[in-house]
Amino acid sequence: MSIRGDLQRLLDACGVRYFSANELLVHTGKPLNHEPHPSQLDNILPAVLVLDALRSHLRRPIRPASVFRSPAYNASVGGATRSQHLDFVAIDFSTRRLRGAYDLLLSWRREMKMFRSEAPFFPLGKDAAGPERKPLPMWEERGGDSQLFHWLGGLAIYPSKNFIHIDARGSNRTWRGA
Ligand SMILES: [Zn+2]
After folding, report:
1. What are the pLDDT digits (tens) for 75-120?
2. Which tens digit of pLDDT belongs to each residue from 152-178?
3. What burial class does residue 170 get, using C-beta atoms within 10 Å of its C-beta: 0-12 exposed, 13-18 middle, 19+ buried?
4. Rounded Cα–Cα distance for residues 124 and 135 (Å)
5. What separation in Å is there between the alpha carbon of 85 and the centre of ligand 1?
6. What's the domain count of the chain?
7. Which domain holds residue 122?
8. How remote is the CA of residue 143 from the centroid of ligand 1, in Å?
């Protein structure tokens, strides 16, 4: 079993259309960077689902630029000490018309827009301890076999570096980078 194969199976189970495990396991920052731990794989699903919806809406390519960061790699790029990238919860990406994509994400989050996920699964909370697995706070059981997904997380634009950061930390935070 490889990390790549396991992640791809998760993406397929969630109906992710536009992103592959290969794209999300970005090979930046080697040799300091490495792949996420197998126990972290579920953490990226909420951000991927948001990005998949954004990609569908924009009808133009989105390129993940930085996803998982090891502590050493994160430190080398000046990342926050408790960066969401360390937990495989965040995605930095670029696309044409960065501002348009950012404004759309912002409005989705402002409206607490719900994305319906037909896949019967519960992502893990990144703070899940021991064998007790608990769902992320933005997932709610709403009856039947479908679940409604509230995106609660970080959203930032870095205009001079030409990328947008999103994460699914479970609470909302917005900031503007350099
Ligand atoms: Zn980021």
Report:
1. 999 999 999 999 999 999 999 999 999 998 998 887 766 565 544 3
2. 889 999 999 999 999 988 888 999 998
3. middle
4. 5
5. 6
6. 1
7. 3-176
8. 34
